Amino acid sequence: TDTEISRLIGADYFNGSVLPCDNETSPGNWMVYCSGRLLQAVMAVKLYPDSKTFVDQPMKANLTGEVIISEFNHRFPGPIEKISKEEVADFVNEFFDKEGLELDVCELPDWIPRPSSISQIQDPTYQAFAQRLHFIWIQLCRKMKPEVKTDQERFSLLYVPHQFIIPGGRFREFYYWDAYWIIRGLLGSQLYSTARNMIRNFAYIIDKHGFIPNGGRVYYLRRSQPPFFAPMVYDYYMATQDVQFVNDMIPAIEKEYQFWSKRRSVNVTVEDVMNETLHMFQYRTEAQTPRPESFREDVLSAENFEGRKRKQFFKDIGSAAESGWDFSSRWFKDGGNLSSIETTNIVPVDLNAFLCYNMNIMQFFYQLTGNPIKHMEWSTRLRNFRDAFTKVFYVPARKGWYDYNLRAKTHNTDFFPSNAAPLFAQCYDPMNSQLAVDVYNQMETSGAFAMPGGVPTSLHKNTHQQWDYPNGWSPLNHMIIEGLRKSINPTLQQKAFILAKKWLETNVMTFNASNAMWEKYDVKEPDAKLATGGEYEVQAGFGWTNGAALDLILTYSDRLKYSGPLLQSLISDTTSSSDPPSTTPITSSSTYFGFSHSFLLPCTIIVALLL
């Protein structure tokens, strides 16, 4: 509407100048993809339903950002509100190619049609399901076209040297914490080279940028995501026993840790006898502007803010995106509305647990590779941090770990799966099994385990955010299950199995109904309903959902027994070891449950890749 357009162009969202995507001095491509009048014009006229579409489009050959911006300013010197949607569309079509064309499908170098790991699954339904998930890796494999390396300024895509697995749908590049569960699944599929190449890509990115961004685009270079690089290397080592690879990756793990320590740390004063000030970590992007891939959404959400408050709102929005939970009542001051977001006032229990896990992995790696001095250094750091972690996050009266709010000087004791992150990361004394039991009991009492489809992301209703009730996400369900499984308490290990079975049945039933895996599910529904909420339609693919499901099936391969409705079609579709299961060809206009997606390849392409 005209009112929306005026809000989108009526304020200086770039602090008076062009905002770079990173800290480099060369303008490169960020003047197109991160800021400026062209980006504002595209978003003001709502050229595409999804804001991400434009910032994913490559510039046409022999063009640069400087040339395009100069031409745009020459053609449209006047106010942005005077430019029509047709004029913007004509300009974009003249100077940009279609999104996604800078990537090619690829062959998996280590492809095994029927891995022995899957053959060992006892239940026929779960074996058939795992086999179908295994073939999805073919559909999600991507590699960079040569011009992305030789002409990088034409692309928003960040170049990496090796092929990788994408999440799927609109997420057509690599993503950071998604890759952890993707790699878990690849290891279960015995695709060790593919997993190793994904890890090597991240090492390349750390070396180039000093950290791993949210995803593989220049517009993500202002924020990271939960730090799972060290756990990726650890899981790869556990699957392969490749000590040399660990040794090769240690410098990158150290460098990434320095990013979090120097650019995402915060001091927390614990009000106890000592009044200690402890060094913790936060999600806290440096950007104070709209996210380029969600520019329109962010600006319209900020309509009631001005000046510093508007900049802080954008900073809190970006910081929540850095957490991976974009968005959730977990970050809202009032527990319900995005306008009350205060991510940078919160010291998150999960981020600190993950970095505690990083420390534990590093002390193990240095022992493994024969460096006693560094082993001692990281062991001491781990021991001290575990003590500090308990002081900051553990609430004895509520028998659990909870986010700490710097403004309110109190904890948020509502249920969120992030409260279980210390179990997953083992950032507690594992001998204290009663502590783990207490944490489980608190979550069970809250009603978090009562849903038929899995564990919800919160119990806050009617926020219409995708990281809230009733949506369940694979990484969070997997993390809770793994945290309980790692406990030395046999009762909790059994509880983990029960939760895994519930989550997997949701995955199986939805796959049987739609022939697709999805990024999230509505866990309050027993009949596998897709999730809703957030800034975009639910996406199919889906990398981390596949990986988490495969990992859980293989973890419990000797115990799982499918107890849902008969799924004979799923079993019968699993054909001989040399051919993939039948898959309905899906184009960009095809839909399941009313949601469009374009990640699947036609069967003919899959067969060609196998030959």
In short:
With 611 residues, the protein is mainly α.
Describe the protein.
Keywords: Glycosidase, Hydrolase. GO terms for molecular function: alpha,alpha-trehalase activity. It holds the Pfam family Trehalase. Belongs to the glycosyl hydrolase 37 family. It comes from Caenorhabditis japonica. The chain is mainly alpha-helical. The protein has 2 domains: 1-47 and 59-96, no CATH class; 103-283 and 345-610, Glycosyltransferase (Alpha/alpha barrel), CATH 1.50.10.10. The chain is 46% helix and 7% strand. It has 24 helices and 15 strands. The strands form 6 sheets. A 3-stranded antiparallel beta sheet has the order 1-2-3. A hairpin with a 4-residue loop joins strand 7 and strand 8. It is globular, with a radius of gyration of 24 Å. 52% of the residues are buried.
Strand portion: 5-15%
**Helix/strand class:** mainly alpha
> Radius of gyration, rounded?
24 Å
Cα distance, first to last residue?
52 Å
Biggest β-sheet: strands ordered side by side in the sheet: 1-2-3
The biggest beta sheet reads:
3 strands, antiparallel
Q: How many strand units?
A: 15
Q: Extract low-pLDDT stretches.
A: 14-18, 582-611
CATH architecture of the largest domain: Alpha/alpha barrel
Query: How much helix is in the residues?
Result: 40-55%
Helix count from the secondary structure assignment? 24
Overall geometry = globular
Mean pLDDT: 90
**What fold name goes in the CATH topology slot of the largest domain?**
Glycosyltransferase
Give the domain tally: 2
> CATH class of the largest domain, anyone?
Mainly Alpha
